[in-house]
Design goal:
FAD/NAD-bd_sf, 5-stranded mixed sheet, binds succinic acid, alpha/beta, 5-stranded parallel sheet, 527 residues
């Protein structure tokens, strides 16, 4: 049994920002499933949005965020974040984080979809995440310890006090361990790997959401999954992200015959909000037409986008020909563990930050380059809050939960699950397909998997359990929401329905109903 003051599960940008901003007398332990440089934050290409250009204003950034989010956002939170963004960038820059500058030493500001101004701060061209993660790691002090390849599979609760007091984790040698702390932070990232087409790192399997749901935390907005329009596509597989910044520099989406597919679809054309671009490409793909990103309008492509150029070269794409075959794929989930702006959940001592959390900032669709920003912003705010909690005591009492041992339980194979999610709960959804998916998932025994002890399973199996639970959360929420909004598109309800759905959130919370017989999962609505 090991103790710390703060345990952070995961090691993306939000986690690293939090760790650095906690007071130096606080003992911080980071438990990460793989290692520090394998997650989505490290792979982030585009950049960080902040209103820093002459003529730009945080209020314009705020309005763009609400517009992209289909006005489902927590507007107050968006206002605070967009206002804080320039200072967050300045602090990093002055602290030695390198961002791309012009010859006068001013920041170069790129453009991405649904932004009304150039405001994307980037580093290394298209290696922003890598530079920021490396910078934050270089600032680590002796109070922070990192434990790689430690897979957290259960949150430990004192149920009488509704308090999270620790975690159970697996080591690579199969050993299980208990880690206790008065502050437990879920920063495990998203769940892009639930879909067969994804830009996400292998580790993005929805762990934090499933962990929190099993423990009784509230989740919100799980139906809102963002599909990035342009993933490199070859031989039936996606091979990595082609940043939206490429379209920001002038690239256009075309058919093989050169027809511009975004003309007449949206006034912002190729830089329309992501769901509109993704749905348009998807329509062509369904009719058997491959779509390409024509990069010939981009000057000096290889030096502006070195990471993407290398990715293309590795896969035999000749950049001189100027056409990159693309498809949309899952990129980000706007929903997650429901928190306030300090990352606090409905369980004492349990917090969530980064993509695992739902602060409401992103609404129904995240504005490009707002995710690293949100991670830094909320990570910093949670640090401020924990720093004020003097002398948190480690509780060692926890109530046994998730403790039942079942035999002969099955799980869907990961590839089968991913394909089923892509086909039935993906870019275009219908009641029929969602019912099919719900029935199919139900066959594997959700109730049992929510209660089952995972102590005896290997990490690959636990990954599949978490993927299965998170797939159910998304499917159920997508089924419930009978309108289209942001990243959630229902072909049978193709329009926004402000009368029934404006600002309404679908909340998942596992409730035990003590009627003496059974327990069930309860879905509630909040406005
Ligand atoms: C991109 O570079 O297109 C992705 C950036 C983001 O999702 O914010």
């Amino acid at each position: 049994m090991k103790h710390a003051d703060v345990i952070i599960i995961g090691s993306g940008i939000a986690a690293l920002q939090l760790a650095n901003k906690l007071a130096k007398n606080i003992n911080v332990m980071i438990l990460t499933k793989k290692d520090l440089r394998t997650g989505n934050s490290y792979m982030a290409q585009g950049g960080v949005a902040a209103a820093m250009a002459p003529g730009d204003d945080f209020y314009l950034h705020y309005l763009d965020t609400l517009e992209a989010g289909a006005h489902h956002n927590n507007a107050e939170a968006v206002l605070e974040m967009t206002k804080s963004a320039p200072k967050l960038i300045k602090d990093l820059w002055e602290g030695g984080c390198t961002f791309d500058e012009d010859s006068n030493g001013s920041l170069l500001l790129g453009m991405e979809g649904a932004h009304s101004r150039n405001r994307i701060i980037h580093s290394g061209g298209d290696a922003t995440g890598k530079h920021m993660v490396d910078h934050l790691l270089s600032k680590f002090d002796g109070n922070i310890s990192v434990k790689p390849s430690v897979f957290v599979y259960e949150l430990l609760l004192n149920k009488e006090k509704n308090t999270c007091i620790g975690v159970k984790a697996k080591h690579p040698d199969g050993r299980n361990d208990v880690y206790l702390a008065p502050h437990i932070v879920v920063a495990t990232g998203g769940c892009g790997q639930l879909y067969s087409f994804t830009s996400n790192a292998e580790t993005a399997t929805g762990d934090g959401m499933a962990l929190a749901y099993r423990a009784g935390a509230m989740l919100a907005d799980m139906e809102f999954v963002q599909f990035h329009p342009t993933l490199l596509y070859l031989e039936g597989k996606t091979r990595g992200l082609i940043s939206e910044a490429v379209r920001g520099e002038g690239a256009i989406l075309v058919t093989a015959e050169g027809k511009r597919i975004m003309d007449g679809v949206h006034p912002l054309k190729d830089l329309a909000p992501r769901h509109i671009v993704s749905q348009t490409i998807y329509d062509y793909l369904r009719k058997g037409t491959q779509i390409y990103l024509d990069i010939t309008p981009v000057s000096d492509f290889s030096s502006r986008f070195p990471t993407i150029s290398e990715l293309c070269r590795k896969h035999g794409i000749d950049l001189k020909e100027g056409l990159i075959p693309v498809v949309p794929g899952s990129h980000f989930i706007m929903g997650g563990i429901k928190t306030d702006l300090h990352g606090r959940t409905n369980i004492n001592g349990l917090y969530a930050i980064g993509e695992a959390a739902c602060t409401g900032i992103h609404g129904a669709n995240r504005l490009a380059s707002n995710s690293l920003l949100e991670g830094m912003f909320v990570g910093g705010k949670l640090a401020d809050w924990i720093n004020q909690q003097l002398g948190g005591k480690v509780d060692t009492y926890y109530t046994a939960q998730n403790a039942k041992v079942f035999h002969d339980m099955e799980l869907p194979d990961a590839d089968v699950l991913k394909k089923a999610m892509m086909d039935r709960a993906g870019i275009v959804r219908t009641r029929e397909a969602l019912v099919h998916q719900k029935d199919w998932l139900a066959k594997y025994g959700l109730e049992e998997w929510l209660e089952a002890s995972l102590d005896h399973l290997g990490t690959d199996e636990i990954d599949r359990v978490f993927m299965y639970i998170t797939a159910w959360l998304i499917t159920e929420a997508a089924f419930q929401r009978t309108e289209s909004r942001g990243g959630h598109y229902r072909e049978d309800f193709p329009h926004e329905d402000p009368y029934n759905w404006m600002k309404r959130q679908i909340i998942h919370q596992r409730k035990t109903v003590k009627d003496g017989k059974h327990e069930y999962n309860q879905i509630a609505f909040a406005t």
